[in-house]
Amino acid sequence: MNLDRALTCAYRAAACTALAFSLASGAHAQARFPSHAVKLLVPLAAGSTADILSRTIGAELEKSLGQPVVVDDKPGAGGTIAMAELARSAPDGHTIAFASQGTLVFNQALYSKPGYDSLKDFAPILLVGGVSNVMIVPPKSPYKTVAEVIAAAKAKPGMMFSSGGSGTSHHLSGVLFGQMTGTQLTHVPYKGAPQGIVAVMTGEVDMGFFNTPTVIAQIRENKLRALGVTSVNRSPLLPDLPTLDTSGVKGYEVNTWFGFVAPAGTPGEVVSRLHDEIAKIVQTPAVREKLAAQGFELAPVQAPAAFSALIKEDMAKWPPIIKAVGAKVD
């Protein structure tokens, strides 16, 4: 009996030692984050707003983390391919994504099976900021004002507008424009923003609504004609350009926000480390000046919970708009 009791105690002691070692090892592994390269998924094409922001911040994040940060552009299917991959990734911080309003909010209403649930599958890290879109037409287009486009669209239903993919802010800007002006527009999605912009430049489509930073160079070179910005206030990049709100589409507003997210279940310590490192980067004068010069409006640094609240707020706002016009992508 005494021997049995002694063995039992010995087994328990060994088990406790093993458990303690396992917990210590786990804590040590967590403390060593990152232990290898971090993959930064971008759900839009190279040259898109998300890609520009990701590479700017990713280069600095690599320095602060001491590990490579590999930007992986995965466009297509409105960004659902990249976001579904993130949802399936190990929740250890070594795979994160630079997501947009389109991928986290719009897609939940546009796709019956997007492959992820934005409110359940991701851990928000930090809201970085946003940009306005600008309504553009070909340089030789007969339309020189928003009012002229509206009149033409009413006279000729089916006018085409391009986007960098279904579910993007480019797409939803056109959907909202058609809804608020009582016009019937035809959406022509492309694999990425660059291709959709070229379609406007060449006259393949009648117009488009693209992130201001991605088209500012072509506008200044007269390769595109800008008619109005989608934000309530004028863009600092195009101070002489009116807003759509003041151009006959009262109440029109689309501002695209971007932020970093990780898979749900990522340890709080890892999320906090990523949040703090990225927050430091976006607050440095060099990065702020670089992004501001390209038209990005940086958001005040807030906790992950604030970003989560924004996602929930927009999930209540946009799906009813999308469903009201019957927009679906499947």
Structural write-up:
46% of the residues lie in helices and 19% in strands. Strand 1 (38-42), helix 2 and strand 2 form a beta-alpha-beta unit. It is globular, with a radius of gyration of 24 Å. Strands 1, 2, 3, 4, 5, 6, 7, 8, 9 and 10 form a ten-stranded mixed β-sheet that branches. The protein has two domains: 36-130 and 255-324, Bordetella uptake gene, domain 1 (D-Maltodextrin-Binding Protein, domain 2, 3-Layer(aba) Sandwich); 132-229, D-Maltodextrin-Binding Protein, domain 2, CATH 3.40.190. It starts with a helix and ends in a 6-residue tail after the last helix. It is an alpha/beta fold and 330 residues long. Helix 2 packs across helix 9 and helix 4 runs parallel beside helix 11 (304-324).
Features:
330 residues; alpha/beta; D-Maltodextrin-Binding Protein, domain 2; 2 domains; globular
Q: How many beta-strand segments?
A: 10
Give the CATH level 1 class of the largest domain.
Alpha Beta
- Given helix and strand content, the structural type is alpha/beta
For CATH, the homologous superfamily of the largest domain is named as Bordetella uptake gene, domain 1
Outline the low-pLDDT stretches. 1-30
Work out the count of structural domains.
Answer: 2
The ordered string of helix (H) and strand (E) elements is HEHEHEHEHEHEHEHEEHHEH
Q: Biggest β-sheet, characterized? A: 10 strands, mixed
CATH topology of the largest domain: D-Maltodextrin-Binding Protein, domain 2
**Count of alpha/pi helices:** 11
In terms of quaternary structure, what is this? Answer: single chain
Strand content: 15-25%
Distance between the termini: 69 Å
Approximate shape: globular
Name the CATH architecture of the largest domain: 3-Layer(aba) Sandwich
